[in-house]
Specification:
The chain is α+β, with helices and mostly antiparallel strands and 96 residues long. It has three helices and five strands, in the order αβαβββαβ. β3 and β4 form a beta hairpin.
């Protein structure tokens, strides 16, 4: 899916009871200014948290789930996650 379609689906869905993963058509680099803005904007909302892989700074799928009234959005590098057996590299730091 295209990232804009995914983000629109996430925005217009009332509740994610279970983790849902949306695969991107192409991988994205978190250091791209457009994606930095998207992640920083999501993290500026008190009821949302956006995580990304701080080591690879790549993303090929976006996951989402609602936990305790917080929408958690995960910009995941699936290849890294699978290769490294789920070692957690996800961070939510502001991206300069």
């Amino acid at each position: 899916m295209n990232i804009n379609v995914i983000l629109n689906n996430i925005k217009t869905t009332d509740r994610y009871e279970k983790y849902v993963s949306y695969r991107l058509v192409n991988s994205i680099n978190i250091d791209n200014p457009n994606y930095k803005y998207i992640i920083n904007d999501i993290n500026s909302h008190p009821n949302m948290k956006c995580y990304y892989n701080g080591l690879t700074r790549m993303c090929d799928n976006i996951g989402v789930v609602d936990i305790n009234n917080i929408r958690i959005i995960d910009f995941d590098d699936d290849m890294y996650t699978m290769t490294n057996k789920g070692i957690d590299r996800q961070i939510d730091n502001y991206i300069n």
